[in-house]
Amino acid sequence: MAHRVKIRGIYTTALTRLLLNSGYAIVDPSPEIRQRFSLPPADEAPEVFIEDRPDHQGIEITGESDQLSLLTRLIQETLLDSILLDFDSRAEVPEEAEEETEVRDIAHARFEFPGISKAYLDSIRSTVIPSLKNHHRLKILHEKKLSRFEGELLKNLGKKESLENELFAEWILTPLQKAGLVRLEHVKASGKAIRPREGILIEREGEKLVLKRSFSQGRYDGLNLPIQEGDYGLTEVREGAGYVKHSYFSRQGKLKGECFNINTPVEIYPFGARYVDLEIDVVCRAGEKPVISDREELALLVRKGVVSSRLERRAIETAEDLVRKMG
């Protein structure tokens, strides 16, 4: 018997397609979803309930513990860089599902969907209905406006590429250029709170950003060097890159060292960029050879089920490739 799932939120179309293909039954679908998938009315109580996180950067899932374990495994096997931020086997049922979900041992899971996951969900959605590139990222920014533009796409599929370029420039790159001050949402895969990093945008070349940052005190991560008065850093982020480059300089402009944070592919937003830190880094003091640090921290995330072994391999390959290129 197919397990029953109810889905709500901006990822509904893509997740409905994914779960139907995996043998799940979709219950209480919205009228729009019922029409898109030719689903019959299904009023049975769901065993699992999926909804957006408040920031729409992923989903929250509530349901019977064993069913939730199977579903989280499916998501991680399908969405390469999905991050299981937490899994609570003693959770409370969310208000919307409280009277509907027929479960005894309630569990709750929370996922982050970084760049690869969103892109894959975009591609799944496009098999159901014509969708623009970066659909889910753009929907986070302007849901109603995006619906209007994709309505135009339905009338003229030949406009797809021009619409994609127009919206990415108008909704992301232009506001970013005007802002001047850029914020990096450096998300911890461990589920810790986001650590915002801010800097002044000093260069934008296409989808590459260079930020200038100043420091007050402390030490440079990985380099084991003290931060001195007048030190500054240049941070380089690039759309889709699997790392963020930090270069640290003295007041006189002398390079002290570099640190490459290995992360999920960078997503550019109007405020700056967002990515998930995968813990390992490539660090290099000025005049010395680069080394990979904190492999064990990433391995621990895999053992805990936070990230998949496939994502671990991708991160390590990115780090090793950087070391080879740096000599």
Write structural notes for this entry.
Helix 1 crosses helix 4 (about 115-125). The protein is α+β, with helices and mostly antiparallel strands and about 325 residues long. The chain is about 35% helix and about 30% strand. It is globular and about 70 Å long.
Give the spatial strand order of the biggest sheet: 7-8-9-12-13-14-16
Strand content: 25-35%
Report the count of strand segments.
17
**Shape assignment:** globular
Overall average residue pLDDT: 92
By secondary-structure content and strand pairing, the structural class works out as alpha+beta
Order of helices and strands: EHEHEEHEEHHHHEEEEEEEEEEEHH
So what's the CATH class of the largest domain?
Answer: Mainly Beta
Query: If helices are DSSP runs of H or I spanning 4 or more residues, what is the number of helices?
Result: 9
The CATH architecture of the largest domain comes to Beta Barrel
- What is the domain tally? 3
Task: Give the topology, please.
Layout lengths: L3 E4 L4 H10 L3 E2 L4 H7 L10 E5 L5 E7 H14 L4 E6 L17 E7 L2 H12 L8 H7 L1 H13 L4 H20 L1 E8 L6 E11 L2 E7 L4 E2 L4 E2 L5 E7 L4 E7 L5 E9 L3 E3 L2 E14 L5 E3 L1 H9 L5 H18 L1
Helix pairs in contact: 1-4, 5-6
